[in-house]
Amino acid sequence: MSSLDLLGEFGFEAAAIVLGPEGERARRGDVELIRPWRSVTKALTGFGAALALQDGRVDLEDAAGPPGATLRHLLSHASGYFYESANTLQAPGLRRHYSNFGIDEAARHVAQGLGRDFGDWIRERLAEPLGMAGLEWSGSPSVGAHGALTDLSLFAAELLRPTLLTERWYAELTRVQFPELVGIMPGFGKQTPNPFGLGLEVRGAKSPHWTGAGNSPATVGHFGMRGTAFWVDPDADLALVIGTSHDFCDAHREVMPRLADAVLAEHA
């Protein structure tokens, strides 16, 4: 039995790609279907910001967002912004408040530093070098990307074996920012702590969680509320990209951790 046989337990259309350091190891389902990535977009925005940081066009300590906040706060959901507005819940750096608005504001700040459109930057510096020819980037840098799982797998492979970022900036992208912060993980409740990198979620010791019990604390990735997700586990040297035809629901909460553990058992 293949670990990807578990895709049938979602109860609706689902597809996946398993990646190792040498490339694709397994695939199942319609991996060419264009899907809404929703919050998976944040991972690309974080990577695009890291490329701008590497080029010296912006700095993580730049003042950005609400008073007292920096680009680092915005990219790691620590600015205090509400989910979808410029209102703030509290001062920066006190709690992990997951915020689409904060990620969009981070992209606006980076675009100002670049002197160009952020979406064009993503296409030129990330999508084109990786061959993500089908990536559709429109609207919000927090939720606006669409694409096939084959394109998302190219991004996951880059996180598994980085070629576009130096070791310093790859480490900054994927390490936990403000590691002590507590917060609500959308769909999974309060996490103490609730670690995030720059646009990337870091697994840490979160429980419950959408990755597997066997995933290492250093696992990074993201899921989107329209049913697309990916994780990259540097300790297992493995990545998984998933797409479904259903908004995130109880089936995802139940099947995705088991799928992750099955993939790790078969391929790690």
TrEMBL record:
A Pfam family the protein falls into: Beta-lactamase
Signal peptide: none
InterPro entries on file: Beta-lactam-related, Beta-lactam/transpept-like, Diverse_Enzym_Activities
Domain of life assignment: Bacteria
Ranges where the Beta-lactamase-related domain occurs: 37-259
Gene3D superfamilies: DD-peptidase/beta-lactamase superfamily (3.40.710.10)
Protein name: Penicillin-binding protein
Lineage: Bacteria, Bacillati, Actinomycetota, Actinomycetes, Micrococcales
